[in-house]
Design goal:
The chain is an alpha/beta fold. It contains 9 helices and 10 strands. The chain has a 6-stranded parallel sheet, with helices on both faces. The relative contact order is 0.14. The structure holds NADP nicotinamide-adenine-dinucleotide phosphate.
Length: about 250
């Protein structure tokens, strides 16, 4: 049995990783800003982090804050993990963080570098967008009477349960460095994803594609965030929609 700390273990991915590791018989601690007894803000270098890491063999780092601070969080985590004698640090990143110059992606790339140079045994997995995130974005856009999409942007969403399967397996293995990317089964246009989502939620909206300016848009349009050569995920967007919004049975979640 291994003692494993999952940072962000209450989040979309972290919750599923935690479930899998516990089902495998490991002792799993969940750290987030709000999860007692390991309620720690990673952006602050407090004693709570040392307590959470005492006796831990492996850390799976899933915590993230879209509003910034992930680099500082990772630096604090690494220093404390070294102090605690952690053997293996597993990090989840995103396909294309080195190709798409989005601020959040640049931060993830910087965190990857911190992990690689941490002096700890490390593993980094990059995945494409989770179905959950795509739906979250599309539902926000569908609040307007017309859904305005960035023209000709493809996407390759993946089922988060499959990412959790892979991450949990990596966490109980030996440090493996950068492992092959994990991409969803289909590369689709954003428009086709939006239309599928509108159908599943019974919303009627006009959909308009608008070309944008800038390097980030160009990188997304060129598919910098895709991994077509690693389209190993099996769960499709339609299967996800059917489970989430009805009309389907089973699914790969949980
Ligand atoms: N979503 C995607 O499509 C996607 C794709 C590829 C990779 N990833 C990566 O997968 C990871 C997990 O993403 P997710 O979508 O599952 O995230 P999420 O649902 O937003 O969960 C974030 C988790 O981090 C915790 N957290 C946030 N700030 C924290 C802080 N300062 N200190 C400690 N804990 C903190 C949150 O709990 P509290 O609020 O309680 O702190 C929560 O448990 C991220 O690294 C993300 O970049 C995501």
């Amino acid at each position: 049995m291994t003692t494993i700390l999952v940072t962000g273990g209450t989040g979309t991915l972290g919750r599923l990783v935690t479930e899998r590791l516990r089902a495998g018989g490991h002792e799993v601690r969940v750290l987030s800003r709000h999860s007692e007894p390991y309620a720690v803000d990673l952006r602050e270098d407090g004693s709570g982090l040392d307590t959470a890491l005492a006796g831990v063999d492996t850390v799976v780092h899933c915590a993230t804050t879209q509003r910034g601070g992930d680099e500082r969080s990772a630096a604090n985590l690494i220093v404390a993990a070294r102090r605690a004698g952690v053997a293996h640090l597993v990090y989840i990143s995103i396909v294309g963080v080195d190709r798409v110059p989005l601020g959040y992606y640049r931060t993830k790339l910087a965190v990857e570098k911190l992990v690689e140079e941490s002096g700890l045994g490390w593993t980094v997995l990059r995945a494409t967008q989770f179905h959950d995130l795509v739906v979250q974005v599309l539902q926000a856009l569908a609040k307007a009477p017309v859904v305005v999409l960035p023209a000709r942007v493809p996407d390759q969403p993946v089922e988060v349960a499959e990412v959790a399967d892979r991450l949990a397996a990596l966490a109980v293995g030996a440090p493996a460095g950068r492992v092959p990317d994990l991409g969803g089964p289909e590369v689709r246009t954003f428009e086709s994803l939006a239309r599928a989502c509108l159908r599943a939620t019974g919303q009627r909206r006009a959909v308009v594609n608008v070309p944008l300016a800038g390097k980030t848009y160009r990188a997304f349009r060129a598919g910098g965030h895709l991994a077509p050569e690693h389209a190993v995920g099996e769960g499709t967007f339609e299967e996800y929609l059917a489970v989430r919004f009805g009309g389907g049975e089973g699914g790969r979640r949980g």
